[in-house]
Each structure stands twice: as structure tokens, then as C-alpha cells.
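User:
I would dearly like some help making sense of a protein record. Take your time, and here it is.
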Amino acid sequence: MIRLLSAGFPRLKKEKIFWIGVGFMAIAAFFIVRSEHQMMLHYETEPSIENVVTGYCQFAGIFAAAFSSLFLGTEYSDGTIRNKLIIGHKRSAVYCSSLILNITAALLMCAAYLLVALGLGIPLLKLSFEEPLRIAFTLFGSALMTVACCAIFTFISLLCRNKAASTALNLLTAFFLLIAASYIVMSLEQPEFWEAYSFSDESGELVEMPAEPNPSYPRGLKRDILEFLNDFLPGNQTFRYLALPGPEDWIMPVYACVTAAAFTGGGILLFKRKDLK
């Protein structure tokens, strides 16, 4: 596998989608810091460490999906994967090397964001990192979340030979995870009861309405499932890391490892049986 990686990393440097992702992350970091700086100057507000430090989380999955599809799709269309197998490389080594390259690309994109965000944010915003443990946990956990996303997208890309189809599937999966996360978060944040209120009717009399249960509030098993998915799914972890969680949310990195291991193990088994002719 070392030879596969030695050949893959130089190719990574030439991938346009990789440099587009790096450039986008750097530009996104610049505008986020600029926005926080303007808010600080005009409204005398404290800069949001969450926005500056974790802003890359909202883009990591989408760029990981696009990169995995185009990078591995090109290997299929050029016959590179078949050639690797013809010269004697094991399918498991081909799969794992592809996953490592995808993970490396995604993490480097995130690193580009952090480099610009901290390089500009610390002197301009005078950020004070009062909770270093929380920040360290967020960086570590979001890195594992990115690894889990890469495992999912590598699974799709290597089992779907058509580059257009794998790109569409990966991007749809990335957006579906974010949309599902929005639904789950909104459901969990529903109030359990509607508060009591009063109003005047047409005759001017005061009408008082008592507090009543909110029918949209998830209860029982449904709430347990939604809370599990809120910890488990990479899309939900994206929103959680944007809020700078702490070590008390240790279960999220564990779930990210489980997701990565499951998709990698399943992907290797299926890739070994796949007809590449």
C-alpha cells in the first residue's frame, strides 16, 4: 500500500478539485473573520469563537463528497484502478489507499480554513481561548467526523464506477445528511408545552388560554431515536461541532469511529467481489 500512496500523493497535488476546496476554505475563513471583525467594530460585540474556529465543519462534508467522487471517478474512467490490480496490488490495499487519500485531502482543506481563520482571527479579533479543552475536543471530534464522511463517500465512489452517478449520489447523501440533521434538531428543540396566554375577543372580554401540550414535541421512543441520531449521524455532528461542544459529548467521536469502521469494512468486502472488467 505504501507504493500506492507514494503514487497517489503526487497526483493529489495536481487535482483541481482539491485546490478549489483549499481555496474555498481559505476564502470562507477570511470572510467569517471579516464579518466578526465588522460586528466587533460597529456593534462592540465580543467575537464568536465558535464561528471562527468551527466554521469549516459546515463545508467539510460537501467538499469531501465532491472530491471523493471526482478523484476516484477519474481513476475508474482512466483505468487506473484496473491497472493497479493487474500489476498485483490487493483490492483491500487499493481501497484503503483511496480512503487515506480522500481523508488527507479533506483534512488539508479543513487545515487551510483553520490556518487562515486563526492567522487572521487572533490578531484582528484578539481571541482569547478560555476553554482550550473544549476547543481541542471540537477539533479532534470534527476531524473524526470528517473521516467518517470520507469513509461513506469512498464506499459510494468505489462501488459506483460511473463518475457522474457517484458524484450525484455523494452530493445527495451529503445534503440529505444536513437536511435530516436540520429536521432532527428542530424536532428536539420543540417546547414540550405551549405557554399560557391571553387575548381580547371581539367583545373586548379577556380570554385566558391555559398551557397545553405541544403535539409536535417528540416523546418516548421517538425522542430516544432522535437523540441517538443526533449523536450518531455525521450531519448532526456537523451542527453539534459548530456550537463548540465539550468532552461531555464524548460519544460523538466514538460513533464517528464506528461509522468509519463499518463503511470501510463493508466497502472492502464488496469491493473484493466487484467485477471491474
